[in-house]
Write a structure and sequence with these properties.
Low-confidence stretches: none
Bound molecules: flavin mononucleotide
Number of domains: 1
CATH architecture: 3-Layer(aba) Sandwich
Length: 169
């Protein structure tokens, strides 16, 4: 197993955080991983808001359907795409940041349950921009077990949709 695969295997949704700050060099590596992510035609039509202000973190967590544990993490990332841009690009970029954070020992959790209007208001996001997802980033205060995944035959096909592709995980 190489380091990249180990990072992917080890990532979990972390919903309990320590408040220790993230050293700037680590945060910058996470942001640089995002900056290096691919986008369609290399458009890079995204903006990542790095929320560190404790009060804004709390208000952001409240806007995320009251998932207040998010605000315990020292950083919340909010991915925004520019007008007309596909959310797919923003999702890929945020995943790069999440995997970089995982590789540095930080917990993250994709947050897709939020009030769009409220998040946009709290973070001053222009009306014509669209939010994608958010994630807290911080040292984990829990070690969640891996959640069950579907068996390969439920997820993969060979050559055609209805032809099985099976392997032993
Ligand atoms: C697009 C997306 C949105 C999600 N939104 C939330 C959320 O709002 N709150 C939450 O606690 N978890 C959220 N999750 C986390 C999923 O519940 C989690 O990824 C899934 O249960 C698998 O667990 P794992 O991430 O630990 O492997 C979201 C995940 C994705 C990919």
């Amino acid at each position: 197993m190489n380091a990249t695969l180990e990072t992917m295997w080890n990532r979990r949704s972390v919903r309990k955080y320590r408040s220790d700050p993230i050293p700037e060099e680590h945060l910058n590596l996470i942001l640089e991983a995002a900056r290096r992510a691919p986008t369609g035609s290399n458009r890079q039509n995204w903006r990542l808001i790095v929320v560190t202000d404790p009060d804004i973190r709390k208000r952001t967590a409240k806007a995320c359907n009251g998932q207040m544990w998010m605000a315990d993490a020292p950083v919340i990332l909010c991915m925004v795409v520019l007008p007309g841009e596909s959310k797919v690009n923003g999702t890929i970029v945020l995943d790069h940041a999440i995997l970089a954070a995982t590789s540095l020992g930080y917990g993250t959790c994709w947050i897709g349950a939020y009030d769009r209007t409220q998040v946009k208001q709290e973070l001053g996001i222009p009306a014509d921009h669209d939010t994608v997802c958010l994630t807290p980033v911080g040292l984990p205060a829990e070690q969640p077990a891996a959640r069950r995944r579907k068996e390969p035959q439920e997820l993969f096909s060979r050559d055609r949709f209805d032809a099985p592709l099976d392997y032993t995980p």
